[in-house]
Amino acid sequence: MNAQKKKRMLLIQPTIYDQYNKLVKKNMLYFIGLTMPLLAAECGDDWDVEICIETIEDIPWDTDIDLIGIGSMGHSIIRGIEIAKEFKKRGKTVVMGGYMASLVSDEVKQYCDAILVGDAEGYWKDMLNDYLNDELKPFYTKKIDTLSTPIPRYELVTKKKIGDFLPVQAGRGCPNSCAFCSIACLYKGKYLRREIPEVVRDIKKVKELGFKKFLLIDDNILSDRKYMMDLCAEIKKLKMEWYSQCSIHLANDDELLKCVVDSGCTTLSFGIETITKSNLQKLNKDWEDPGEYSRLIQKLRNAGIDVATEMMLGLEDDTVESIKETAKFIIDNKVEAPKFYILCPVPGTPYYEEVKDSPDLVNHDIYTYSPNKATKNTPNLSAEEIDKLYWELYNEVYSIKNIFKRVIFTKKFLKHPARELFVFGVNLFYRYHIKHGIAPIII
Ligand code: B12
Fold first, then answer.
1. Which residues line ligand 1 (CB under 6 A)?
2. Same domain assignment for residues 394 and 349
3. How far, in Å, is the centroid of ligand 1 from the Cα of 4?
4. Domain of 56: which CATH number?
5. Is there a domain that residue 441 lies in?
6. Crossing angle between the packed helical segments 383-397 and 320-332, to the nearest 10 degrees
7. How confident is the prediction along the chain (443 residues), in pLDDT tens digits per residue?
8. How far, CA to CA in Å, does 171 sit from each of 141, 299, 377?
9. H/E element holding 213?
10. Ligand 1, atom 31: nearest CA belongs to which residue?
C-alpha cells in the first residue's frame, strides 16, 4: 500500500446549466440528495471526506485533496465532465458515478480515471482500496440483490444552506418499466428494500440532528404494500412529518392511504405524466388511467395529502389543445405543486433507442439534452412549438390568480394554515423562477 496517500476525498455534486447556458447557482438548495452523505459513510470512518454541492457552493479548485469523486444526475453530467477535465489537468485522481455516468459509462470514462457503474454498495470500498494501492481499474460494476447501508454522514451537509428536512431512503428501484425512465433502465423492474429497523435508525438520526421532517427519496414507495404498511407503523411512533413520491394508485387503497397519513405524511408527488391515455400506452405506462386522476387527487386531498404532480410535454399524441387541457386539468384539480418536463430521450432508456435515429430528432448532441428544451418534433407539434407551449403552460398554471385559487382560497387553508402558507411560498418561489425563464426543477 502507498503510505503517502492520505485517506481524504472530495465528493462533488455538480450543478446543471440552464437554457441560457449559465450554471444554475443558488443561495439555498432546499432539497438535497442522499448520495454524497451516504458515499461518505460507506468509505468507513478512516476517510476524511468533504462534500461540495455546486448549486450552492463554489468548487475548491485549489484543494490539496488528491481523490475527487463526481456524481451525475441527468444533464449535470455535462458539468461533471468539465469538472473532471479541470481536476485531471491539476493532476488529481478523478472517479465518477451516479445515473448518467452509469448509463453512458464508455463515453464518460474518457474524462476520468474510473467509473463506478450502478450501486456503490458492491464495490466502493474495493475501488478505494485500489486507489490507495495505485491499482484503479477503469470500471467497477457489481449488481446487488439486497440493500443495507450505514447511517449517512448527514453532519457533512447540515451546516450548508439546505431546507428544513433531510433525505432518507427505504428502497431503490421500481417494479414498473416505463420506457423513458432511468430508474427502470438501471434496476430493470427490481425493487430493493432495506430492512425496516435500518430505515428507522436513519430517521431517528435525522430527528436527533434537530430536523422535524424528512423526505423518503424512494422512486415509488408503494412498490411493496406490506413493507409500506409496516414502515408507516414504525414512522408513526417517531412523530415526524414526511414527504415522498409514489404511484397515484395509493388513493385506491383506503387502508394504506390512512396508514400513510396517520404516520405523518403531508405531501406526495405523483408522476402522472399526461392526461392523454394513448401517450401513456406509447411510453409503456398504461397501467395509469388519466380518466381517474381527478377522482384520485380529490381522495388524496380529502385524506389530508397535498398533491404535487410531475407531467411531461412533447409526447407523441400531444396537440395544442391537449396541452391547453393540461393547464385546465391542473387548475381545476387545484394541484398544489405542479411541475412539467419536456420528454427527453435519456441515453440508455428504451425511449432513446426508439427515437435516436428518427428524422424527427432535431438535437443530436446528447450533452445538451435537458428536460426544458424539446429535442424532437412530434406528429402534431414542432420542437419550437413544444418549447413555446411549455412556457405558456407554466406561466398560466403559476399565475397569481391560479396560485391563490389552489392554495389560499381553499378549505384546507383554514384547516392547516401554516402548512398551506408554506405551499404558497413554494408556489411563489416557482413562479419567480418561471418568470425568469428557469424551470423549477432544482429547488
Ligand atoms: C434528491 C434528488 C434531486 C434533488 C437534489 C439534487 C442534488 N444536487 O443534491 C433535486 C430535486 C435538486 C434534483 C435535481 C435534479 N435531478 Co434529481 N433526483 C433526486 C433523487 C430523488 C434522489 C437522489 C438520491 O439521493 N439518491 C440516493 C442515492 C443513494 O442513490 P444514487 O444517487 O443513485 O447514488 C448511488 C449510486 O448511483 C452511486 N453513485 C452516485 N453518485 C456517485 C458518485 C461517485 C463518485 C461514485 C463512486 C458513486 C456514485 O453510489 C450511490 C450509492 O449506491 C433521484 C432519484 C433516485 N432514485 O436516486 C433523482 C434523480 C437522480 N434526478 C434526476 C435528474 C434528471 C435531476 C435533474 C437533472 C432535474 C430533473 N429532474 O430533470 C436535476 C439535476 C440536479 C443537479 N445535479 O444539480 C434523475 C437522473 C436520471 C439520469 N439519467 O441521470 C433521477 C434518477 C430522477 C429520475 N427518476 O429520473 N434531484
1. 13-16, 31-35, 38-39, 53, 55, 69-71, 73-76, 95-100, 103, 116, 119-121, 124, 167, 169, 181-183, 217, 219, 346, 371, 441-442
2. yes
3. 33
4. 3.40.50.280
5. no
6. 20
7. 455 567 999 999 999 988 778 898 989 998 899 999 999 999 988 899 999 999 999 999 999 999 999 999 988 999 999 999 999 999 999 999 999 999 889 999 999 999 999 999 978 999 999 999 999 999 999 888 999 999 999 999 999 999 999 999 999 998 888 888 888 888 888 889 999 999 999 999 999 999 999 999 998 888 889 999 999 999 999 999 999 999 999 999 999 999 999 999 999 999 999 999 999 999 999 888 999 999 999 999 999 999 999 999 999 999 999 999 999 999 999 999 999 999 999 888 889 999 999 999 999 888 788 888 999 999 999 999 999 999 999 999 999 999 999 999 988 899 889 989 999 999 999 999 899 888 887 67
8. 19, 26, 36
9. strand 213-216
10. 35
List, in sequence order, every residue forming a beta bridge with 168; answer none if it has no partner: 216
Q: Which residues pair with 214 in a beta bridge?
A: 166, 242
Domain that holds residue 241: 164-435
Instruction: Say whether both 113 and 213 belong to one domain.
Output: no
Q: Which segments of 5-89 does DSSP mark as H helices, in order?
A: 35-43, 76-89
The grid coordinates of residue 427 equal 408556489
With vertex at residue 386, the alpha carbon angle to CA 382 and CA 387, rounded to the nearest 5 degrees, is: 120
Q: Give 243 Cα–ligand 1 centroid separation in angstroms.
A: 17
C-alpha Rg value of the chain to the nearest Å: 22
CB atoms within 10 A of CB 27: 7
For residue 34, which atom of ligand 1 is closest to its CA? 25
Residues 6+ apart with CB under 8 A from 274: 280, 290, 311, 312, 315, 318, 322, 326
